Amino acid sequence: MAKTIYLCGFMGCGKTTIGVKLSKMMGRSFVDMDDYIEKKHHLTIPQIFAQFGEQTFRQYETEAIRELSHQGNLVVATGGGAMTIEQNGTLAKQNGIVLFLDAPFEDCYHRIAGDSNRPNAHSRTKEELLELYQTRYPLYQKNSSYTIDASDSPLMIANRILQLYNR
Ligand code: S3P
């Protein structure tokens, strides 16, 4: 079973854009974990946060990773908080590799500022988001298998991942 590739990193680092591109280049199925959770629970992410709180959403993420970890050959874009939790990284690495997309804060910020579909961005000022980015950064590093420089175009980054994978 070919190892599933899990992309992690801060909101707006490009996990979905790069994941879609990479999955096409590799001929694999792509799973966006946020979409997966929304479909499974018949609720949007903002609804889950509003009705049940972030803790419940985190439990849904762990369940999703556990379910996906039984499959190989996927490219998975995880949500920005998923790989801040060690247990999720351990689960994902059982049959997969976890890649941290290391994009500069300013790039992420411009993509997420004011996005009402992202409760954790919407509820924070720029300064607070920077603080969250800095708190999470070492956790992404710790819970991933490799760190990928994600400051270029999605195509360049997808190619960089392919090179690493085929090495
Ligand atoms: C979150 C990131 C989101 C989504 C949820 C929480 C976070 O995913 O999982 O809104 O806490 O960073 P993206 O990273 O795809 O925005």
User: H/E series, N to C?
Assistant: EHEHHHEHEHHHEH
Low-pLDDT residue intervals, each spanning 5 or more residues: none
Q: Would you identify the CATH H-level superfamily?
A: P-loop containing nucleotide triphosphate hydrolases
Q: What is the total tally of β strands?
A: 5
Strand order of the largest sheet: 2-3-1-4-5
Distance linking N and C termini: 18 Å
CATH architecture: 3-Layer(aba) Sandwich
- Beta fraction: 5-15%
User: Radius of gyration in whole Å, from Cα?
Assistant: 15 Å
Give a quick account of the main beta sheet: strands, pairing sense, barrel closure: 5 strands, parallel
Instruction: Give the CATH level 1 class.
Output: Alpha Beta
- What form results from the Cα inertia axes? globular
Which ligands are bound? shikimate-3-phosphate
Q: Number of DSSP helices?
A: 9
Tally of domains: 1
Helical percentage: 55-70%
Mean pLDDT: 97
Structural category: alpha/beta
Please describe what this structure looks like.
This protein is an alpha/beta fold. The chain has one domain (4-166): 3-Layer(aba) Sandwich (Rossmann fold). Helix content is 57%, strand content 14%. It has helices at residues 15-26, 33-41, 45-52, 54-68, 86-94, 105-112, 119-122, 126-143, 154-166, and strands spanning 4-8, 29-32, 74-77, 96-102, 146-149. A 5-stranded parallel sheet has the order 2-3-1-4-5, with helices on both faces. α2 crosses α4 (54-68) and α3 crosses α4 (54-68). The two termini are 18 Å apart. The mean pLDDT is 97. Shikimate-3-phosphate binds at residues 11, 15, 34, 45, 79-81, 118-120. Shikimate-3-phosphate binds next to α7.
